[in-house]
Specification:
Pfam family, one: Aconitase
Strand content: 15-25%
Radius of gyration: 21 Å
Distance between the termini: 54 Å
Protein name: 3-isopropylmalate dehydratase large subunit
Shape: globular
Function: Catalyzes the isomerization between 2-isopropylmalate and 3-isopropylmalate, via the formation of 2-isopropylmaleate.
Bound molecules: 3-isopropylmalic acid, iron/sulfur cluster
EC number: 4.2.1.33
Catalytic activity: (2R,3S)-3-isopropylmalate = (2S)-2-isopropylmalate
Oligomer: single chain
Number of helices: 16
Length: 467
């Protein structure tokens, strides 16, 4: 028999095994905090007169509500200002390390953890944020929690959890040039649906996954949640160890050697059984884009928007009609003919240095189309600095794109970077539901390469479409 990777990490963290229908109590190694889901949790501690049990395992950053221009000015929006001020007060009072706006380590919580080497194989990582699944790329068991659970973890460093089911997502073969991990995960979600992963921890496996960089792996695990999964994981390997070595919180010397020895054991045993399995042929994949209002409504860029007239099933036809109506699209239109107003390159899905490099590679020597605005928002201030060191900011601004400070930005409408009603974007983020990027805004989820090519041509495009 043997165990899956997820089961191994779970077993290694049981503080108290649940009896009967009770949940297991798990130890939490790393608790990430941001301004949106933490205020009530800290308030709960305050009312109960409790301290934060392990401030050394807790780290906070400002990301959702921060503007990405004029960050030295007070936040203009009163709601956002209150959120950020509250986080600052709470972190000060409870002794939690915080990276505020303007700090060299500030950024989106899921970019900051890995960057600091805090996210490590075999650990349990939680945050009051669904995209905590990102950290599973290191072989960590990482999942989003609600605000009352945030309070529980702050108070006890443990969490009662019910066991999950496991699903193997085998990505076999080799990705073609120009096809990225974003295309893989959009194809996985289109295949299994936005509810297909419900109750499961997904383990991404196979040759194509092993060939991916750490950042590309994070993109895949990040969107596990869009398939409805509890978490996503990838077994750690040399790529993982190389990424971690020398990072501020990575083990050193003899501790490093011991850690690597342990990390090497973190793989699904031969013969271990998954509750479900799905296989994707990497060789057959091409750039993928969404046309609808959920992340499962995606197709290869070379195809046409589904025509409701071709759909026999009433419920399915209605869902497509409704999505096309909101999106302002005609069934049967080639995806390549869909014109956008805005291109957003950023978010915890695709706001890392490799994403910026990929997009800059396409934009170098080219211009953003006249009626298109392009926002480039690094996932963290460290990513921003690295990009500037490499001159990528100059490539973006020379092309006519806006170069911003770090934050969630246009991934969601909680800060000034938003779509106006009816505006259409090609966005490297992870969610495309109605109003996600601003009331009435229309979102097409794409990879950084497609985002850059789309900015140049003004319609959904891949770099192959450029002269
Ligand atoms: C605001 C936060 C709770 C939310 C999440 O949990 O994912 C946000 O990050 C998102 O991407 O929608
Ligand atoms: S970048 Fe987007 S998905 Fe990621 S944490 Fe921020 S709002 Fe959520």
């Amino acid at each position: 028999m043997g165990n899956t990777l997820a089961e191994k990490v779970w077993e290694g963290h049981i503080v108290r095994r649940g009896e009967g229908h009770e949940p297991d109590l798990l130890y939490i190694d790393l608790h990430l905090v941001h301004e949106v889901t933490s205020p009530q949790a800290f308030e709960g501690l305050r009312l109960a007169g409790r301290p934060v049990r392990r401030p050394d395992l807790t780290i906070a950053t400002e990301d959702h509500n921060v503007p990405t221009t004029g960050i030295d000015l007070p936040i203009a929006d009163p709601v956002s200002r209150t959120q950020v001020d509250t986080l600052r007060r709470n972190c000060e009072e409870f002794g939690v390390r915080l990276h505020p706006m303007g700090d060299a380590e500030q950024g989106i919580v899921h970019v900051v953890g890995p960057q600091l080497g805090l996210t490590q194989p075999g650990t349990t990582v939680v945050c009051g944020d669904s995209h905590t699944s990102t950290h599973g790329a290191f072989g960590a068991l990482a999942f989003g929690i609600g605000t009352s659970e945030v309070e529980h973890v702050l108070a006890t460093q443990t969490l009662p959890l019910r066991p999950f089911k496991t699903m193997a997502v085998n990505v076999e073969g080799t990705l073609r040039p120009g096809v990225t991990s974003k295309d893989v995960i959009l194809a996985v979600i289109a295949k299994i649906g936005t509810g297909g992963g419900q109750g499961y921890v997904l383990e991404y496996r196979g040759e194509a996954i092993r060939q991916l960089s750490m950042e590309a792996r994070m993109t895949i695990c990040n969107m596990s949640i869009e398939a409805g999964a509890r978490a996503g994981m990838i077994a750690p390997d040399e790529t993982t160890f190389e990424y971690l070595k020398g990072r501020p919180h990575a083990p050193e010397g003899a501790d490093w050697d011991a850690a690597v020895e342990y990390w090497k054991t973190l793989r699904t045993d031969e013969g271990a059984e998954f509750d479900a399995e799905v296989t994707i042929d990497a060789d057959a994949l091409t750039p993928f884009v969404t046309w609808g209002t959920n992340p499962g409504q995606g197709l290869p860029l070379g195809e046409r928007i589904p025509d409701p007239a071709d759909i026999g099933d009433d419920a399915e036809r209605y869902a497509v009609e409704k999505a096309l109506d909101y999106m302002g699209l005609e069934g049967g239109t080639p995806l390549r003919e869909v014109a956008v107003d805005t291109v957003f390159l950023g978010s915890c899905t695709n706001g890392r240095i490799e994403d910026l490099r990929a997009a800059a590679g396409v934009l170098d020597g080219r211009k953003v189309a006249q009626d298109v605005r392009m926002l480039v928002v690094p996932g963290s201030m460290k990513v921003r600095l690295q990009a500037e060191t490499e001159g990528l900011d100059e490539v973006f601004t020379a092309a006519g794109a806006e170069w911003r400070s770090a934050g969630c930005s246009m991934c969601l409408g909680m800060n000034p970077d938003q779509l106006a009603p009816g505006e259409r974007s090609a966005s490297t983020s992870n969610r495309n539901f109605e109003g996600r990027q601003g009331k009435g805004g229309r979102t097409h989820l794409v990879s950084p390469l497609v985002a850059a090519a789309t900015a140049v041509r003004g319609t959904l495009s891949s770099p192959e479409d450029l002269d």
